[in-house]
């Protein structure tokens, strides 16, 4: 600390000396750059903290630094001065000699102006802590002298371009806390000392060139893997021995490197042990013949041994007996359509779908082409028996709006669940993915359809299965191609005892669950109410588990509704559809009933289904409901022609 302030003092003295020196030669002036700066300040809204005196030399202005000749502006530093909005074209982009540009900690938004490509001499660009949005600015990838680039804490989205590699002088690249998605390109990291892409929405494997950075550089992303993070295909983290290896192999392997004396010693020893074992077996057999054995010995199939060797750690290969082998195989539920075994699953190519607090989900494509979802549970606390009892209940649930659980696997080290794969993805992706970048918005008919079908799925869990879902959120609502919803990830809370807070995503959690730590049918109804609000507002509720700042949807909606009944709560993407206001208000009322703070005031799930069905019935006579049944027609009745697809200006809180 002391060293730092000393250094700062020296710098300050030098600066002061310069100012004193330079104030003598006011005559020289970067005329062109001054005009550009004045244009910038006059065009951008800002607070009154910047006072540039037009009759003074620009080189004397606060935040502006010039070269020794005072003929060009070299540095512009305006951190935290309350600049608001988009940087205008033809202003800063004209400062052709600029070396350092810092506009951090303002409220700048939108894209960077295109003429930033002309800042070819720029060495440092600090734009962190603003509200810039849009894709990674293409102009930046042409500023080949850049050494430090900080775009962190903004609202950038889209993929990171491979052309970042144009910036071959880069020593620091800071992109954390944005909305970048997709996988990280292979970035040349030779000169790179600092690198951070944490808290984005990146997925896929980390390129090898970036392995040298620690996990803190990649934290908080949706599904990154490899390098400093857990490996990419980790159904089974320990390198799995080949299935053909028999348990005695480790000894054979070792003996190859041993001397003959040792081999003899081992042989003699083995023979002795064998004799002892035989004796022991004989004794045991005699005893068994006297007392009736409690269970008949299980048949030993070759496949189960394969499964056992392939999955357990090497220690288990030696100690694990054949009795365990039969128990440790993939167990399918009745009525399933699959025929594969654990070995097939191990050979499958896998891709991370999502990481939750109960475990990670993978999309596994088996060699014969079948695709399934494998959920790898972590921190299961219950015993095998309790596990099997709960899973058995879940496996029996069959409903068109519930994702079927097909199989499970339980061993000491691994607990896997196998589900059907739903190719159309999750409601969360559909609702929040790549907003504003020319995607097809989720129309009202389909939102209603999802609301109703999800409600039916959950009601079936409650009524027929007597199962509390416990983790209702938009990423657990999966879609069939016809936009009928299926609920997934249900009924897993009992597997974790009290160790995991139930309903992990804070934004969906009913208030009483915070205290009781127990999910109930009524807390499911609350979560479903939040889901309805999400469908109506297009806003993601507070997702603490993703490190994303969100909003407490029920509270926010209540506050807007209380102040004045306005259309502001509804998703701007819905504003283009006509004659749906009444339905939206009806669904909003159902949602508000579901998110009552008092559990007893919430309707039961089957009542929610009936309420949504009733509101549909009132509308069927206009013929619009049917249109969404036919995907080819879509919701043509509602969708305006493509040229007028831009929604009206956003009304956000
Ligand atoms: C602007 O600078 C001129 C010349 O240096 C000076 O006379 C004038 O007082 C300054 N105006 C303000 C508002 O500071
Ligand atoms: C300063 O001006 C002199 C002559 O006018 C020129 O030779 C020199 O290159 C200039 N230096 C810089 C840094 O622009
Ligand atoms: C860059 O500068 C050149 C010359 O000053 C100008 O013609 C061009 O329009 C500028 N580029 C952009 C994108 O503004
Ligand atoms: C980020 O962008 C999204 C849409 O792209 C917008 O809804 C959100 O309000 C923006 N966040 C901030 C902090 O500007
Ligand atoms: C990463 O996410 C994108 C969508 O943002 C998806 O298209 C892609 O398949 C994902 N890749 C991996 C490896 O998960
Ligand atoms: C990257 O950024 C995150 C979030 O701002 C921070 O917590 C983390 O420490 C940073 N990592 C490194 C290596 O600096």
Kindly describe this structure.
This protein has 653 residues and is α/β, with parallel strands linked by helices. The chain is 31% helix and 14% strand. The protein has 17 helices and 22 strands. The strands form four sheets. It has a seven-stranded mixed sheet with strand order 1-2-4-6-8-10-12, with no helix packed on it. A seven-stranded parallel sheet has the order 3-5-7-9-11-13-14, with no helix packed on it. The protein is globular and about 95 Å long. One 2-acetamido-2-deoxy-beta-D-glucopyranose binds at residues 131, 133, 155, 435-436, 652.
List keywords for this structure.
single chain; 653 residues; alpha/beta; 7-stranded mixed β-sheet; 7-stranded parallel β-sheet; 17 helices; 31% helix; 14% strand; globular; disordered N terminus; binds 2-acetamido-2-deoxy-beta-D-glucopyranose; Ser-Thr/Tyr_kinase_cat_dom; ATP-binding
